């Protein structure tokens, strides 16, 4: 199978750098004329997939909005993921899983395992049990040709206090922020012999578009060969037209993620909203 890094880079080259979030929260379901049930969330997801296919290369279903309906919600999510993958979209399951090593293996099986009902192309994961807790998950991504997006610099303002905190790391010869530590440790595989020389390695990072990377001690070199999932555009205030100012030399690595600013257009307007987001992004990237 082609590596995740190659699949993602191909999707970004062919279809651009916009990632459409699939976030069927209660307010949006009501606006879309759908019930706040697993079946409503399923119909919502399938309609977003239909609009996204051929317009973008990547979608990101928000697992929480399916999980809230229990087993019926997971069945709905399985259908949405399968439909997206069948349509040729790269699927990032936004599950934000994080636990100790052996338990993480279970999450790896669930989200990355070949033939798993929830099999996706990549999953978001949390490193706050320590970056080494991700080791098994990273090994699974390499083995399965799948991807990970590790929370490094999240878009929510209250996270900066934690992610910019300095840690004492025995092997480091300098103080390191939590964000720097996480990206350095988890991203090491991207330049190791274990992976090929595709544009991206298997470990990407979440770096919010609303974040001051310098404050978090995040330098460009630590993100070398990492895909960057950047939420925060649209509803959270960052503008796609500013992508080059926000990300500088990293801009070509950025997957700009937006949910509410697209989904709020409703079922009749979503295709146009995706086109408008794409046009704004393309103009900013290639001006
Ligand atoms: O991992 C994420 O996608 C994520 C990380 C982060 O730092 N901030 C963030 O907002 N997200 C997710 O991105 C989506 C943002 O939605 P909108 O603000 O509506 O575009 C939600 O599904 C969030 O859970």
Put the structure in a nutshell.
By secondary structure, the chain is of the alpha/beta class.
Q: What is the N-to-C order of secondary-structure elements (H for helix, E for strand)? A: HEHHEHHEHEHEHEEHEEHEHH
Q: Give the overall pLDDT as a whole number.
A: 96
What's the structural domain tally? 1
CA-based shape: globular
Estimate the helix proportion, in percent. Answer: 40-55%
Total beta strands: 10
Figure out the total of helices. 12
CATH class: Alpha Beta
Assigned CATH architecture:
Alpha-Beta Barrel
Poorly predicted segments: none
What is the CATH homologous superfamily assignment?
Answer: Aldolase class I
User: How are the strands of the biggest sheet laid out side by side?
Assistant: 1-2-3-4-5-8-9-10
Could you say what the CATH topology is called?
A: TIM Barrel
Structural class: alpha/beta
Please report the distance between the alpha carbons of the first and last residues: 35 Å
Strand content: 15-25%
Bound molecules: orotidine-5'-monophosphate
- Quick one: biggest sheet? 8 strands, parallel, barrel
**What is the CA-atom radius of gyration, in angstroms?**
18 Å
Enzyme class: lyase
Active site: 96
GO molecular function: orotidine-5'-phosphate decarboxylase activity
Pathway: Pyrimidine metabolism; UMP biosynthesis via de novo pathway; UMP from orotate: step 2/2
């Amino acid at each position: 199978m082609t590596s995740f890094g190659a699949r993602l880079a191909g999707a970004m080259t062919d279809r651009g750098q916009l990632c459409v979030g699939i976030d069927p929260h209660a307010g949006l379901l009501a606006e879309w004329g759908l019930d706040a049930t697993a079946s409503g969330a399923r119909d919502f997801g399938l309609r977003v997939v239909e609009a996204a296919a051929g317009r973008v290369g990547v979608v990101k279903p928000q697992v929480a909005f399916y999980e809230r309906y229990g087993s019926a919600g997971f069945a709905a999510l399985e259908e949405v993921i399968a439909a997206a993958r069948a349509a040729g979209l790269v699927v990032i399951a936004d599950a934000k899983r994080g636990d100790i090593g052996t338990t993480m293996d279970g999450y790896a099986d669930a989200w990355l395992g070949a033939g798993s009902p929830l099999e996706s192309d990549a999953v978001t994961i949390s490193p706050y049990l320590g970056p080494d807790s991700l080791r098994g998950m990273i090994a699974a991504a390499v083995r399965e040709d799948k991807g990970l997006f590790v929370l490094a610099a999240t878009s929510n303002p209250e996270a900066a206090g934690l992610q910019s905190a300095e840690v004492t790391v025995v092997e480091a010869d300098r103080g390191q922020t939590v964000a720097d530590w996480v990206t350095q440790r988890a991203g090491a595989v991207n330049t190791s012999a274990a992976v090929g020389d595709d544009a991206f390695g298997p470990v990407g990072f979440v770096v919010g578009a609303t974040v001051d990377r310098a404050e978090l001690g995040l330098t460009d070199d630590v993100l070398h060969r990492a895909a960057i999932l950047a939420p925060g555009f649209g509803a959270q205030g960052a503008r796609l037209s500013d992508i080059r100012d926000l990300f500088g030399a990293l801009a070509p690595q950025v997957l700009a993620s937006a949910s509410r600013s697209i989904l709020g257009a409703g079922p009749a307007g979503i295709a146009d909203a995706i086109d408008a987001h794409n046009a704004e992004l393309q103009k900013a990237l290639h001006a």
